Amino acid sequence: MRPWLQGTSKFAALLPLLLLTACSHDPADDLAVAKMSVEEAQATNYLPLNDDMPGTSVDARHYLVPGKFTIIEYYSPYDQSCINLAPQLIQLARVNNRVAIRTININRPEVQEVDWQSPVAIDAEIKALPYFVMYDPRKILRAKGRPAYEQVNQLVREIAGTVH
Q1: Rounded distance, CA 114 to CA 128, Å?
Q2: What is the pLDDT of residues 63-95, one digit of tens each?
C-alpha cells in the first residue's frame, strides 16, 4: 500500500455514508420558523410555518403549544374559502388565549392554482380546503378534517358573536 493511503481504509468505508448524510438535507431545516427558539414559537399565537418557503413540508407537531389548543390550517392562497377565513383565524388567535394557530401553505411557488399535487397536500391526504388538524392542550390529536373544521368554525363564530 502506498504510504499516503495508510489508515484511509476506514475513512474510505465511511465515505459513502458521509456523502449520503451530507446530501440528505431536509428543506424544512431552512424555514424561518426552524430558526426560532421553542419559547419564541410557543409564545406566538398565530404562526405561519412555511410562509418563506411555500409548499415545503413541515412537521407542525414541533410547533404545538402546551396548555393551548393548537389548530393547524393547511391552505392555498388560490382557494377563496381559505382567503376569506384568514382574517378570522388571525382574530381568533388574537382574542382567544386558549388557542394557537399554525398555518401551512400547500402551494409550491410555481403552481398558480390550488396545488393538489404538492408533497404537502399528498402527505397530509388533503382532499378539501381549508383543512384543519386540532390538538388539545396536552398535545394530543383531537380532530382533523371535517370534524376539526366544524370546531374551528364554532370558535370563529363565537368571536364574531354570531351563530350561523
Answers
A1: 10
A2: 999 999 999 999 999 999 999 999 999 999 999
**Of 59, 51, 144, 54, which Cα lies nearest the Cα of 106?**
54
DSSP 84: H
75 or 25, which is more confident: 75
Dihedral Cα 124, 79, 147, 72, nearest 10 deg: 60
Cell 428543506 locates to 27
For residues 99 and 71, the answer to whether their CB atoms sit within 8 Å is yes
First to last CA, the chain: 82
Q: What is d(CA 92, CA 160) in angstroms, rounded to the nearest whole number? A: 9
Residue pointed to by grid coordinates 402527505: 123
Q: Take residue 98 and report the three cell numbers written for it.
A: 386558549
